[in-house]
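Class prep. Write one:
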Amino acid sequence: MQIRHERPMSDLSFQVRAPLGLDLATGERVTISNWSLQGFEFPGTRDVLPKEAMLSIPFQGVEIQFKISLRRDGDSRFLYFDGLTGRQRETLAVFYRSILSGKMASTEEIITSLDTPVDLVPMEETEEERAAATRRKTPRLLRIMWNVCVYAVLAVLIFGFMGQQVGSMLDRIDVDRGRVVAPLIAHQTSMDGFVREIAVAPGDRVDRGDVLMVIGSPDIDDRVALARQELETAEFQLRRAKNALEEIRRATGADGSDAWSITARLALAARLKDEFVHTADAEQMRDLWLSLRELEPENAERFRLDTVIEERLEKLVIELRAQVVALSEKLALQDARRASAYVVALHEGTVREIALYEGQHVEQGAMALHIETDDPRTLLGWVTPDVADRVHLGQRVAVVLTQGETVTSLEGRIDSVRAGPDPGQPGSFGQLVTVAMVGERTDQLQDLLPIDAPVDLTIHRDRFKAGFEKARGALQSLTSGGS
């Protein structure tokens, strides 16, 4: 009986995690982490997958390379090894088995897989090689000087470049998501209504308290019109009552003029009674007064018709004055409520953006416009948490602004640092850095730095400069002390 052990599905193989190098025709090198003897999943997101490449297998510090062909089925990103030779497949299998077994492949197995004979190479120098080495040899001193010069030049080039790069890495901190920030004040609507008038345009200068936009409501307009109509009616009635009171006072001589006849005064009182008092019939009141004058002459004057009408008019004038005051306050309140719907400048500055148009219906809290104050524009950027401890107020910042073919270089200083999320990567947390410009006026910054324009920000720690300054100061102090 023969017993054979094999996996349930012989056409499959396990994926192993071991680095394989893949050199593409473009010169790019790709590292394959997961692979099997069938193939591998091509990493990355590129659409065009290679069909040929140079495969590198690591072995004891060296790499075994050979050219391979790759095949792809459908839209899958899995690439199959296509047309491997026996030596190539055996070499790849040796590396694969060593990973699965956990044992390092021996040199003998690799050599066997490659089927390459190993010849002994003599390590001793032959006579011909010894003679060729001594033939036309330059003097030892010249060779030493030449080598010293060559190594010195290489040292200056290599270590100078590397030192510059290392110094730059230690001195510079790159700031992500740099952009221009303007001191904008948002103005919102205070109530629902319609945009009746826009009194400004982008670029206009405004003072604090200026009316920028008129927001109106039919309901408020009706209330204001009704209050004004009621006030005008009350004022008209007050003027009529005052004129009637002055007229009856002239008739009775209360204002110092000659009194009218009793018949004229009574007639005037009867007319004014019908206009203002609306009580009993004037003829009846006159007859009652005449009867009272015959019975009680001493009390008759107090109940004379013109005297009663005068007293009534005085009370009516007082009531109408109070009514006019109340209606004036009501109208002022309605006007104030309508004026409260206006969009008014909260600060002196320049209008930058208008978000509404005339005739548009808006709701309370809608964005109306932005005003830029006279404060200088600043720059805002974000740094990662791993460099947050090296960012401080007052550090020098190099600013590069690119607009088309124009590149502008400026200098700024860190004005504020606060913790905040990365605006470009939700969930990332670091520090928001505000940079204030140095040596530029506010109007110049408005011309140089467009709102929300992207900028390149680099923080300079100036550690080497500070060290040089300290060393020079110490040297100067020593020199002055010695002298």
User: Anything to note?
Assistant: The CA atoms of residues 142 and 375 lie 70 Å apart. Residues 305-340 form the longest helix (36 residues). Confidence is low (pLDDT under 50) at residues 8-12, 116-121.
